[in-house]
Design brief:
The complex is a heterodimer of chains A (414) and B (246).
Chain A (H helix, E strand, L loop, with lengths): L2 H14 L1 H39 L3 E6 L10 H10 L4 E6 L1 E2 L4 E3 L2 E3 L3 E5 L4 E2 L4 E2 L5 E4 L4 H5 L4 E4 L1 H8 L7 E4 L2 E9 L15 E5 H8 L6 E6 L5 H15 L10 E5 H44 L1 H9 L4 H45 L11 H27 L3 H6 L2
Helix pairs in contact in A: 1-2, 1-10, 2-8, 2-10, 2-11, 8-10, 8-11, 10-11
Chain B lengths: L4 E12 L2 E13 L4 E5 L6 H8 L7 E6 L2 E2 L5 H11 E4 L11 H11 L4 H14 L15 H14 L4 E5 L7 H16 L3 E6 L2 H4 L4 E6 L2 E7 L20
Parallel strand pairs in B: 3-8, 3-9, 6-7, 7-8
Antiparallel strand pairs in B: 1-2, 1-4, 4-5, 9-10
Helix pairs in contact in B: 3-4, 3-5, 4-5, 5-6
The chains are: A alpha+beta (414), B alpha/beta (246).
Chain lengths: 414, 246
């Protein structure tokens, strides 16, 4: 029958009993709200990962050596030679040793500080940036001679300078596993607001030769390369792979002898993992939508009983089964659609609120970046569509019950 | 000329527990266009069952019913709905207006189900309200009107679809005697304008307003004739107790 009249009737019955309408829609509101929050936060996180990748450089390639059955690993000179031989694609390489050690200054202990053993190639004096995107604030970077002589020097992050040296670190000493090191350079601050322990501002670069000594190991097992651009990162990866396969005399040494990954691949992995996590969360939120649907069905069954006489009158005036059915289906669909709209609004606001708090924290930890927890148009349309669909699905059973009522019984009903 | 209503050997049998109830027990009845007939009987006489079958709200157990020449005795739910929509106008004891709809929307309902477009629907519903003198009440809700006015709205609704037959089931039962008389006067006027009216009642004083009386008892017709005939109001086994029809 007439869609507009059914629609207006539905709105009318919703507005005449607001409390009941709200309770009916509550399940849908919560379900849709939760889905919107999850999708918005996921959207914000993906955006943040992308910003991080952009900042660190999408042209970065990491190579890690396991060695397999080989009795030796390539040394840094081999790596430098390879990069030089492929200068059209690869632009730089540095050892990148993650060091596990205790950093102390006087009686202060810094146990969240990241420590990296690198070479002088790490810093490009022409651009003023390190391969991993840092800039010098004062002093100098590691030199060739520092590496050769295993000098006890370090370049520290802005957080350490502030916390350990009250903003004046150059020439002063700190100790790593009891070994005294002199600060020769300080990195530029990354955080826009407060600097936090463990953040990008809480790190130290030392010559990789010094790092090897501290760790008591012989081989550098992690390198960081740069390619000319993000587009050539994959080509760079293939060059390194070919070289290493050749070096280890194997056809496919990936995973056994070495592992190479580009920044873009890492970002994709993070995004894929987040996608799975989001999927699980959305599935959980969907249970609430199911419960909401059952709530609508329940109220529609009550409504059909309450309006038995109305149904009888309509039938006596010539309403066919499908007229009655569509009236109640439209009513259920309208109820859940309004619930869906409220849920989208509610979820959006909640996502903004959580995003503001969470985004601030993440931004500190990851050294800047904007966290924008806004649902995509697709997420909004999908949520709206799903809520209308649920109303129609769960409204069908009560509507069919109404459609099949016998007009005589319905007319006599009190 | 073809009869408007033609009931032939109609039985309606219910099974109530172990008991078999013959609500209608071999009824033959013809009503022509333009007649004003009262179907009278006490509670349990079968008049409500007769009204349900004449009104296409129910089908007989056996027998045939032709309405306007069409056999409607074996129709399914939806086909009956269409017949009700096109040929019948109901007036109920309890008015049966839909409380959430305005007076105008209530009157529009049969036209809505007939698929009449909205501007024509409105026009015809307003004309119908005009006939019962309530054109200015279109925007009101039924609850804002008096009982007599509500019954007039339900008459307007019955007339809106231009039915072949107006079927009034105890139309004065819920009204005081003065407004009841007004409603009856109105039914009489409709008859004089050429409409066919069938009135179902338990009340002789109302039945005599019709031209012809059909008296039912125990599912059988025991009198069928002129309402001015003294036998029309005599009940052989008088059990009349003023009870409202079953």
């Amino acid at each position: 029958m007439n869609f507009t009249q059914s629609f207006r009737l539905a709105i009318k019955s919703l507005t005449t009993s607001k409390m009941r309408a709200l309770l009916t829609m509550l399940g849908i509101i919560i379900g849709v709200g939760a889905v919107i929050v999850i999708l918005s936060l996921g959207n914000g996180l993906t955006g943040m990962v992308q910003q991080q990748v952009d900042k660190l450089g999408i042209n970065m390639i990491q190579a890690q050596f396991f060695g397999g059955t080989a009795d030796r690993l390539p040394d840094p000179e081999d790596m430098y030679d390879m990069v030089e031989a492929n200068a059209d694609i690869l632009t730089g390489v540095s050892p990148y040793l993650g060091v596990n050690a205790v950093v102390r200054h006087g009686s202060d202990k810094f146990d969240r500080t990241s420590l990296y053993g690198v070479s002088e190639i790490m810093y490009n004096a022409a651009t003023g940036y390190t391969i991993d995107g840092e800039q010098l604030a004062k002093g100098r970077f590691i030199s060739y001679m520092d590496v050769e002589r295993r000098e006890n020097i370090c370049i520290i992050g802005a957080y350490l300078e502030e916390e350990a040296f009250d903003g004046d670190a150059l020439g002063k000493q700190l100790s790593i596993n009891g070994r005294p090191l002199t600060v020769v350079g300080v990195l530029k601050r990354n955080a826009e607001l407060e600097m936090l322990p463990g953040s990008q501002d809480d790190q130290i670069y030392i010559p990789y030769t010094t790092a090897l000594e501290i760790m008591g190991s012989r081989w550098v097992n992690l390198y960081i390369f740069t390619s000319t651009s993000g587009e050539t990162a994959d080509a760079g990866k293939r060059i390194i792979e070919a070289y290493l396969n050749d070096f280890f005399r194997t056809d496919d040494g990936m995973w056994d002898y070495f592992y190479i990954t580009t920044m873009a691949e890492q970002a994709n992995q993070i995004n894929a993992m987040m996608g799975v996590a989001m999927g699980v969360l959305v599935a959980i939120a969907a249970i609430s939508l199911l419960v909401g649907g059952i709530g609508i069905m329940n109220i529609m069954l009550v409504s059909v009983t309450e309006r038995t006489r109305e149904i009888g009158v309509r039938k006596s005036l010539g309403a066919k089964r499908r007229d009655i059915r569509s009236q109640f289906v439209i009513e259920a669909g309208t109820t859940s659609a309004i619930g869906g709209i409220l849920g989208i609004g509610f979820g959006w606001m909640l996502a903004k609120g959580i995003g503001a708090v969470l985004g601030g924290m993440l931004s500190e930890n990851m050294g800047g970046g904007v966290f924008d927890a806004t649902p995509t148009m697709g997420a909004i349309l999908l949520s709206f569509g799903v809520s209308v669909g649920i109303g129609i699905l769960f409204g069908y059973l009560p509507a069919n019950k109404a459609a099949k009522l016998n007009p005589i019984d319905a007319l006599r009903y009190d | 000329m073809e009869h408007l209503i033609e009931l032939k050997n109609i039985y309606k049998i219910y099974q109530m527990g172990s008991e078999t109830v013959h609500a209608l027990d071999g009824v033959d009845l013809t009503i022509d266009r333009g007649e004003f007939v009262a179907i009278v009987g006490s509670s349990g006489s079968g008049k409500s069952t007769a009204m349900n079958i004449i009104g296409c709200l129910d089908v007989p157990t056996s027998g045939t019913y032709h309405l306007g020449g069409v056999d409607v005795s074996t129709m399914d739910d939806d086909d009956q709905a269409e017949i009700r929509n096109k040929m019948l106008g109901f007036i109920f004891q309890q008015y049966n207006l839909i409380p959430k709809l305005s007076v105008l929307e209530n009157v529009e309902l049969p036209l809505l189900y007939a698929g009449v477009d909205s501007s024509e629907r409105r026009e015809r519903a307003l004309n119908s309200l005009e006939r019962v003198g309530l054109r200015d009440k279109g925007k009101n809700l039924p609850s804002q009107l008096s009982g007599g006015q509500q019954q007039r709205v339900s008459i307007a609704r019955a007339l809106a679809g231009d039915p072949s037959l107006i079927l009034a089931d105890e139309p004065t039962g819920a009204l005081d005697s003065r407004t009841g008389r007004e409603v009856l006067k109105f039914l009489k006027q409709l008859h004089q304008e050429g409409n066919t009216v069938v009135l179902i009642t338990h009340d002789n004083s109302i039945a005599v307003k019709a031209e012809r009386i059909v008296r039912l008892q125990d599912g059988k017709i025991i009198y069928d004739g002129d309402s001015r005939d003294p036998r029309a109001v005599v009940q052989p086994h008088d059990e009349e107790d003023g009870e409202v029809g079953a």
